[in-house]
């Protein structure tokens, strides 16, 4: 029995229908759509290793391998591409600076193992306990503080070449509002291309690196077309490793939210029964992240960019993702492609990350809006307020040789304030507790009616 049945005539999507995960179009169309998904994920996936200093080709390799592993674990029933997760940028940057790349990779492995365990628990016990531990006000605060905690990193890159950074940022915004559909969803990738070209015109590629004495153009020219990716191994024995790992633990909450959202999105657009694979999705992403960290790649997550492509094309075939993952693996064996990405100027990264980190923060705020969080309640007010200030200011705390950064402290603050605050407020009946979503007044989207 074939893995996929052919949808309709194999060339077009029938009106009012979608190509289900177990279906496919003809192989030429399936291959073309697989390549399109690689283009969709590329802009975001290569940015994470470029920003953190990880090898781009290695991250690309584990991105492709992780996608294929995801398809196997979810029994070929859940279409998804696993690209680099932006939630890892802050802890990886901090861990690399304080303890080295090996410690950062150890943190990625720890996140992957913990996420896999969460997946197993969800598969057998359901999602209810996650919703109770991390209600919308807490989840939104954690996601938002991860993005806003990165603001100083964006400024460091922006300040290197403010002119190029400004042009790049303007291009990202312009493409996002000018185009609709697929081009609008890859506005960050297009903005990088504009900034890259602008820097080239200004002579960036003729400027030699003071350490190597080579210009970016020379480095690209000397890189071979074919070669093995650069592998690294995690370091669990260095003194700073376990302190660094603590900074990574809140990322698990973000990955849970992203994976659950992805599954629900696909289920909404295809078949509600897809929701049954939530636990397997979490397990698969956990295994993929563990594999990536063990070999020198960035942690992975399900990609919203690729959901956008599926929504635009109405093609949810998992066959497309087998093509996409395989193409990504092939691209990973080209050092020249890695050299091109490593040559992206700091100003370009500064412009892109200014938008990107802010968008991560806005995603957290969107969680509040979508769930109609009641901010007239003091518990909700302080849960969000304290967590955000801790994250944005970059609070740190030393304890028994461990250093906890703003993301860890902000996450702990959100959880403690919410759950302890609600416990006290409800015992005292003070009305300060989280009373649940604000009820809709009148028809949604219009003025109240009598």
Automatic annotation (TrEMBL):
Membrane topology: Multi-pass membrane protein
GO CC terms of this entry: plasma membrane
Annotated Pfam families: Xan_ur_permease (PF00860)
UniProt key word Transport: yes
Single Gene Ontology MF annotation: xanthine transmembrane transporter activity
Keywords: Membrane, Transmembrane, Transmembrane helix, Transport
Signal peptide: none
Principal subcellular localization: membrane
Sequence intervals crossing the membrane: 54-73, 80-99, 105-130, 137-155, 161-179, 186-205, 236-257, 319-341, 347-369, 381-399, 405-425
InterPro entries: NCS2
Localization, UniProt: Membrane
PANTHER family linked: PURINE PERMEASE C1399.01C-RELATED
Family designation: Belongs to the nucleobase:cation symporter-2 (NCS2) (TC 2.A.40) family.
The protein, known as: Nitrate reductase
